Amino acid sequence: MKLYDSELKVMDILWEKGETAAKDIAAILKKEVGWSKSTTYTVLKKCIEKKAIERVEPNFICRPLISKEEVQLYETNELIEKMYDGAADQLIANLLNRQELTPDEIKRLKELVKNLE
After folding, report:
1. Across-strand partners of 63?
2. Is the backbone peptide bond immediately before 64 cis, with ω within 30 degrees of 0?
3. Which value, in Å, is the radius of gyration of the alpha carbons in the chain?
4. pLDDT tens track of the chain, all 117 residues?
5. By the 8 A CB rule, do 87 and 95 touch?
6. Which of 29, 50, 64, 85 sits 20 to 30 Å CA-CA off 7?
7. Measured between alpha carbons, how far is 77 from 83 in angstroms, rounded to an integer?
């Protein structure tokens, strides 16, 4: 499922807090990014239409229907297809060639590769 940046802002709140009233989401986004209540409700409507969230009554409670991991997997696969012609190893090679990897990041990558074998 493709989610745009504005939709991800809403989803981040739901992934962090779980079920949340729409009015509370609007208050958080007003404080964090300056959105009006109507902007938040428009984005919520789009997320509901995409079946990323569910609206529960009473009080317009929002419940996430997809996990952050599902969205990360979709976005990663889209990046691999778009930028690396489907070659995941090229993405990994690009990441590994970064000069900024910390020792902890290198350790985690080695563990991931070991677990794949």
Report:
1. 54
2. no
3. 18
4. 899 999 999 999 999 999 999 999 999 999 999 999 999 999 999 999 999 999 999 999 999 999 999 999 999 999 999 999 999 989 888 888 877 888 898 899 889 888 988
5. no
6. 85
7. 10
